[in-house]
Amino acid sequence: MSEDRRSRSRSRSRSPDRGGGGDVNNDQGGPPPGAENGGAGDSGGGGGGGGDEVKLYVGNLDYATDEPRLREVFGAFGNVTDVFLPMERGTSRPRGFGFVTLSTRSSAEDAISKMDQSQLDGRTIRVNESKPRGEGPADIARGGGPGGGVRGLGPGGYGTFNPQGRDEVKLYVGNLSFETTEESVRSMFEQFGPVSDCFLPTDRESGRVRGFAFVTMPAKEAEVACGKANGMELDGRMLRINEAQPKGSGGGRGGRGGG
């Protein structure tokens, strides 16, 4: 085997850069910002020496879901060549999302169509193709990406802020640390104006926070907070903030309001 071929073989089996994938939108609400990217310098699905390999982002995972479980589930769609579950620095706890690489694009697309929004270990997971850094949905929403799109402050991170002209606006606050409390979120937003409500959703079974919050403020102050606090750091995490998407308005991106 030539040295070039050995090098490409090693690059296909190597786990993604563990320094990448900063947040979601989580779904822990949505994926964390940059989580769709799979790490700095990663060429994304199907790129580089991986031939037809496609890397998938799998979000909103239960903390008990491990590598063998993901291999088992996604192995139903084809050959799984790599699984990577990022861990929080210092605690070594799962961060609630992972990356699964399938050997062919057809198997990856089949997995996306059948697994996105499906139930896995009690959680509704999100599955989509991992994109190179700067081209994921979160990057485009922030004004990145090859098209240089303009980030919106409106529902889901797109469009005009508060198009209904409400007196109060609910903001979605994503990529929170699991250690972040309601008091610290409220305190951060009160520097921009009065906060009438602050809510951190929790997992129904475990009672643990899900990594995002909703903050309600007067419309004028909410717009200022949305523009200035987006990208600010809280408890070591870079926040992603936009107007909460009203329930039933459709579109899977950005935060959803609680009603």
Structure description:
The chain is an alpha+beta fold. It is 21% helix and 19% strand. The chain has 6 helices and 12 strands. The chain has helices at residues 3-13, 67-74, 105-115, 137-141, 182-190, 219-229, and strands at 54-59, 80-84, 97-102, 119-120, 123-124, 126-129, 168-174, 197-199, 212-218, 233-234, 237-238, 240-243. A 4-stranded antiparallel β-sheet has the order 2-3-1-6.
Poorly predicted segments: 1-31, 36-50, 134-151, 250-254
- The secondary structure category is alpha+beta
DSSP strand count: 12
Q: Strand share of the residues? A: 15-25%
Shape estimate: elongated
Helical content band: 10-25%
Assembly classification: single chain
Radius of gyration: 19 Å
Described by strand count, sense and barrel closure, the largest sheet is:
4 strands, antiparallel
Average pLDDT score: 73
Across the major sheet, the strand order is 2-3-1-6
Helical run tally:
6
Order of helices and strands: HEHEEHEEEHEHEEHEEE
- Give the N-to-C terminal Cα separation: 60 Å
